Amino acid sequence: MTLLKIAQVGHPILRQHAQELSPEELGSAATQGFIDDLIETMRDARGAGLAAPQVHRSVRICVLEVQDNPRYPYKPNIPLTVLVNPTLTPVGEETFLNFEGCLSVPDLRGVVRRHAEVHVSALDRHGAALDFVARGITAGTYQHECDHLDGALFLDRVEDPSTFCTWKEFARHHEPSFRESVAATVARWGS
Fold it and tell me: Is 145 marked active-site?
């Protein structure tokens, strides 16, 4: 496997609408190898997810995984999930505020409003249909990664620019209260 270079904010690929994959493209050895590299790169960077455009490939693939991640100690675990050609549809009107960061936007965080429940429709890496509802903090992670496939960054969704902060200042001034809100969200939605 190969660690891939992560595109940084300002690179045009992060603002492109990624292309869907055909079943033949998904089944190719090249695409399957790319998915392995995407997973390895996400794990190496200690991300909660990574989308193909973030590693300079404008295709509709993203991967998610949280297993007691030290970068996000407050996030509920998410088993390794590969989404191909995903579609997210909000379920209901309820939202929550989520302090987000991004591997493509180093050392910056900000508060983003996310849907509390989303219906996820996608293919897995083998072309099998995925159909489920993600809730709470986990739903926020799905929305963040799928935004990348539409050329959007969390920066675009920050409603109050005064919430922007570095990771160090987040830990110093905001993490304790954010952990309380995460605990309340997890208690309400179970994830």
Answer: yes
